[in-house]
Design goal:
Layout (H helix, E strand, L loop, with lengths): L10 H6 L20 H9 L3 E4 L10 H6 L1 E7 L7 E5 L4 H4 L8 E3 L7 E3 L10 E7 L3 H5 L8 E6 L5 E13 L5 E13 L2 E9 L2 E7 L5 E2 L2 E6 L6 E2 L3 E4 L8 E4 L3 E4 L5 E2 L11 E2 L59 E4 L16 E4 L7 E7 L4 E11 L2 E10 L8 E8 L4 E7 L7 E6 L2
Parallel strand pairs: 1-13, 6-19, 7-18
Antiparallel strand pairs: 1-17, 2-3, 2-6, 4-5, 7-8, 8-9, 9-10, 10-11, 12-13, 13-14, 15-16, 20-21, 21-22, 22-23, 23-24, 24-25, 25-26, 26-27
Length: 447
């Protein structure tokens, strides 16, 4: 710790890994056109810190830019195939939602067929559907990174006490077993009389699950979400997860790569010009699971208040036979799961040789001895650096700290941090490598 110095899978798999699935049960979004100021502030207060996976190539994207990079097309379901027509090459987001000059329209195969509108429900299985067809470029697939907006939506259960904020996270491309353009993911924070009680997570074509607030990782009081590599499914811990219960062996891999601070870019979804568009985001290949999904729209039903508990990461197991296609990478299995995650000291650290008041924040992920397994930051000193694994046991973790940024206070550059489990979290002891008897620090950490 730092111290301050005073001196491939078949079509079946593709079908089962569909992203952006819709749920059928209430409650629905209130759909208020202009959220109240206090609602907006509350939404930003609980917006999650999203860890994008290490090595993620398909980053978050601004939905407005995705629209600007796309043509609007209509997919006909005709007896002689599925012909498509370009409805607009320069797409106006407000017209997608039926504002301005009115919604975009298209007809089915015959002149006598009804006229369909982009702001109305269209049964894609019977007639056809509108969809945004983006340019097939690396720029679209890369996205915008952590500067991209997150879109929040307010839900009210209707009992006078229970509410939630759904945070919609958009990516221009899903690069998993089932590749497709456009990828809407989401996570919800649940409140009771304005106080957080839990989170709801979604992934692929699985039902939502719940994590109690006290069991959730947090950074400065904000919930932490892990976006799986390639698929972007949402999880509450780092590690490998079963991507779907229907196809054993296909795994999602989450890790602490790039942090997306969604509160910095949070936008109310009901204020977006395209709010009201009911078509699809991404091209339609005719194979379920490889088609662009629907996004958020007024009245979309969500299982926000699900009761099913989320499962934790998979335990490493030995497998035989050929590998199942997956975006997951083998875990190093060097850091026990009990030490992994985001940690902070609620109280100031104890350093006898300094009169400075400061805290410590750590993030620890899996890795092997000699590898970088985390990051450290010291609020109050503004020093930060990296953590390299030195020793890993079930009852003790030792990491070497290297401080590489100290804009305000001089900090000891090299030291050793020893972490041991406690009933409430972790106990931290720090000793400077150059002078361990002089620079020593203690702290109690919680998630």
């Amino acid at each position: 710790m730092l111290s301050w110095k005073s001196g491939l899978v078949g079509v079946t798999v593709l079908v089962l890994l569909t992203s952006g699935c819709e749920d059928d049960d209430l409650p629905r979004s209130t759909g208020d056109p202009s959220p109240k100021v206090d609602t907006r502030a509350e939404a930003e207060r609980f917006a999650p810190a999203v860890w994008l996976a290490d090595g993620e190539k398909n980053m978050p994207m601004d939905a407005d830019r995705f629209i600007a990079e796309s043509e609007l097309r209509f997919n006909y379901d005709c007896r002689n195939g599925r012909p498509e027509v370009t409805v607009a090459r320069d797409v106006d987001g407000s017209r997608l939602a039926g504002h301005g000059d009115g919604a975009y329209t298209a007809k089915d195969c015959e002149d006598k067929s009804p006229t369909f509108a982009s702001d109305k429900d269209v049964d894609g299985g019977a007639d056809g559907d509108f969809y945004l067809d983006p340019a097939n470029t690396d720029e679209v697939r890369r996205g915008d990174g952590p500067s991209a907006p997150a879109y929040w939506e307010y839900y009210d259960k209707g009992d006078g006490h229970t509410t939630a904020y759904v945070y919609w996270l958009f990516y221009g491309y899903n690069d998993f077993v089932n590749n497709h353009e456009g990828d809407w993911e989401r996570v919800a924070v649940r409140l009771e009389d304005g106080e957080p009680t839990g989170l709801t997570f979604w992934k692929h074509n699985e039902g939502p699950c719940k994590v109690e607030w006290d069991d959730a990782e947090k950074i400065d009081g904000r919930p932490v979400t892990y976006a799986a590599d390639g698929s972007h499914g949402s999880y509450h811990r780092a590690g490998a997860y079963a991507a779907t219960t229907s196809v054993p062996g296909v795994t999602d891999e989450t890790s602490q790569g790039t942090r997306w601070s969604t509160w910095d870019t949070a936008r109310p979804v009901v204020d977006q010009p395209w709010w009201g568009y009911r078509g699809l985001w991404g091209s339609q290949d005719g194979i379920e699971g490889s088609n662009g999904p629907r996004g958020p729209y007024p009245g979309r039903a969500e299982s926000v208040f699900a009761d099913k508990a989320c499962l934790g990461p998979l335990e490493p197991t030995a497998t035989a036979g050929p590998p199942v296609p997956s975006r997951s990478r083998p875990a190093a299995n060097g850091v026990p799961a009990a030490f992994q995650g985001s940690w902070r000291s609620p109280a100031p650290v104890d350093q006898p040789t300094s009169d400075k008041t400061y805290h410590v924040e750590l993030t620890i992920r899996d890795g092997a001895v000699g590898e970088r397994v985390g990051d450290v930051r010291y609020p109050g000193l503004d020093c930060s650096g990296s953590l390299t694994l030195d020793e890993a046991r079930a009852d003790r973790l030792v990491v070497a700290e290297h401080i590489d940024a100290m804009p305000k206070s001089p900090c000891t550059v090299e030291g050793l941090i020893t972490l041991t489990p406690t009933a409430d979290g972790l106990h931290l002891e720090y000793a400077g490598r150059s002078d361990p008897d002089t620079v020593t620090v203690w702290a109690e950490l919680t998630r």
